[in-house]
Amino acid sequence: MEYEEIIYETKGTVALITLNRPDKLNAWTPRMCEEQAHAIEQANADSSIGSIIMTGAGRGFCAGADIGDTFQTRLDGEDPGNDTAGGSGGMPAGVDWISLVRESKPIIAAVNGAAVGIGVTMILPFDMIVCSDKSKFGFVFVKMGIVPELASTHFLVSRVGWGRANEMMLSGSLYSGKEAFDYGLVEYVVNEDELLDKSFELANLFSENPDAQLRMTKRLLTENAVTTDIKAAEELETKLLQECWERDEHAEAVSAFMEKRKPKFR
After folding, report:
1. Is 37 in the same domain as 159?
2. Could you say which residues of the chain have pLDDT below 70?
3. pTM for the complete prediction?
């Protein structure tokens, strides 16, 4: 796929995906979504890549859906993308965003400015969110006469709790990076000029570890975080643990420990 609305590059063991419509604060379109999904899949297929960072070009991360290209187009009777009416949350039908993100290599959002509407809901299932002190977050759906999507009513409660999630979604207010950190929406808030450095620091930590076990651990976190069946959670862990015992990555880790060297996972 030729990218028109994102930039994809690799830096060592990290893939960097940059939303690239800076003149519109990286307003989201179905085309952008398909490019994002393709880039994530490209990183996942590259054995030299251990983790992924997504950020925005210019002053914003993503100011939400492009009103003209999405909402107005739909009101005019046309589908704004590849069957968004048949997809989830207005995304093209061929993109299962939540499954893609949760089954991916570790993925970090580096929020450098406004993250509004789908600009914030699409990153809620990411493994970590790092933001700059210049960032703004807003779940503004009610103000547009619509409701949230992408299971964000689940993920936001998981991140910030019941009361804060109600406040943020029912008011449609904007929140600063500091407020987002205080509420638990993001894991780190840093100075604007430190945003990518911090994100790469975390991404490189993840990249030191083996892909298969990283993705297995993500699966455990995804499924077991919401289960009320503790026995089922334990059984899934045991199943994946037994698979790990037979894998080369486990043997390499044990050999490296015994030989007092750093393991080589990629």
Report:
1. yes
2. none
3. 0.95
